[in-house]
Each structure stands twice: as C-alpha cells, then as structure tokens.
Design goal:
It is built from twelve helices and eight strands. It has 252 residues and is α/β, with parallel strands linked by helices. The structure holds 2-phosphoglycolic acid.
C-alpha cells in the first residue's frame, strides 16, 4: 500500500528560534498521538541541523525546500544535496512552482537535482502543477504530463519508486482557492495513469501523490477521502501547529 503523507512547506518563514519552537510543538503533538500517516516538515536550510537535533524523526520527517543542481564547488550561495543530507534531513522539495516561476528552474536543472537528491539518500517531493491560464485553456493534463516526463521519466523504475509527487495547481497556492476534491481526484487519477503507462501499474499504485494549494483542516478530509489523493503538501497551514495537526488528523 502506498503511504499517506502530510508534509509541511514552511517556505521563507520563521526565524531560527521561531522555527525550532514550531518544530518542537509539532514533535510534541505527534508524540502524544499515533498519526495515521507519515508527517514531514520541510524547513529553511538555516534551520535544518538544529531542528534535526530536537525532533524524533521516527515520528516527524525533516526535509529541505530545495537543493542545488551541482554537488559542490564555486556556486556562491547554493546548498547542495550532500550538505542537506549531512544535517540529518531525509527529504527535499524539488520543482516547487515558486522555484520554477521566480528562480527559473527548468526540467533540465530539476533532473540534476533529483539525481543528486537520490544519490545522497534524500527523498524528493517533486512538485508539478498548472497555472490559471493553462487550467482555463484546458491544458492542465498536458502540462503536468510534460512536467513529469521531462523531470522524472529519465529515472529507472527503482528510482522512480523513491519519489513522492505533489500536484499543486499554481492558482490554488496561497490564494485560499482550493481545487475541489473532484478536480484533485480527476488529475491525480490522470497522473497515476501517466506513471502506469511508463513504469507499469504496480509502480503507479505504489506512488504517493499529494495535493497542495490552500489545503487546511476544513477541506483536508474531503480531499484525502478521494482514492487517488494520498495526502497534502501544506504551505500556510503548516505554520501553526494546531492547523497542521488538524490536517494530520484528517487521516484519523
Ligand atoms: P499553501 O501552499 O498551502 O499556502 O497554498 C502550498 C504550497 O505551496 O506548497
């Protein structure tokens, strides 16, 4: 059975003390209950090593929000996959729409990032999703197919099996406008069929596909009830422990 997952994406929020306090709070909340899903927080680079030291990673996974497309060298300001792994983190978000939009990330650089993440034992949470104009033009299926093909289909079936996918319609991110659970199910089922065509039904059935975009405690249960929605990638609502735990509890 594929995993059910709730992953937080803190983005560029919290100072180090604030982030450590939030991580401790989530860690304590998870220690007090048996979550019915895997729970992960993806946090700023500056927070990784400290947070790794204060959480129980058997209950709360830790990830970065990005990594470099090179292993090491003269790339001022970049943080590599080996560096991320050396903090104790085991996940990394790759290809978030904000990285694609504001920092010019292409499928070509993402292929390098995915390869380096896997080489260093990090599990990529690979993001795909269409912008509003593409949705309105009815192009969302071909857009996500192209993103998956270009970013991931160079992988062996074994390596593809290590990827977590996150479908995030860009028009729903931080806007309060969630995809309806039927819209999410429709495209998640399509994404699974694209994977099945390439790697076979078994690999497709084992792939966790998360939904992201204004997911909150009030809509998580309906989204997660859909057969092809395996959890959520949570931005804004991951910054408050009660909201984040409310979404984790949608799996109870
Ligand atoms: P949001 O962000 O939950 O604030 O919409 C989701 C994301 O960008 O991962």
């Amino acid at each position: 059975m594929r995993k059910h997952i709730v992953a937080g994406n803190w983005k560029m929020n919290t100072t180090l003390p604030e982030g450590v306090a939030l991580a401790k709070e989530v860690n304590a909340a998870l220690a007090a209950k048996d979550a019915n899903c895997d729970v992960i927080i993806c946090v700023p680079f500056t927070h990784l090593a400290t947070i790794a030291g204060v959480i129980d990673q058997n209950k709360l996974g830790l990830g970065a929000e990005n990594c470099a497309d090179h292993k090491s060298g003269a790339y001022t300001g970049e943080v590599s996959a080996p560096m991320v792994a050396s903090t104790g983190a085991t996940y990394v978000i790759l290809g978030h729409s904000e990285r694609r939009q504001y920092y010019g990330e292409t499928s070509e650089t993402l292929r390098e990032k995915v390869a380096l993440a896997l080489e260093n034992g990090l599990t990529p949470i690979f993001c795909i999703g269409e912008v509003l104009a593409e949705r309105e033009a009815g192009q969302h299926f071909e857009v996500v197919k192209k993103q998956i093909e270009e970013g991931l289909f160079n992988l062996s079936a074994e390596d593809f099996g290590k990827i977590i996918l996150a479908y995030e319609p860009v028009w729903a991110i931080g806007t309060g406008k969630t995809a309806t659970d039927d819209q999410a199910e429709e495209i998640h089922a399509y994404i699974r069929s694209v994977i099945a065509d390439k790697y076979g039904k078994e690999v497709a059935e084992e792939t966790s596909i998360l939904y992201g975009g204004s997911c909150k405690p009030s809509n998580a249960k309906a989204l997660f009830a859909k057969p092809n929605v395996d959890g959520g990638l949570i931005g804004g609502a991951s910054l408050k422990c009660a909201d984040f735990m409310g979404i984790v509890e949608a799996w109870d």
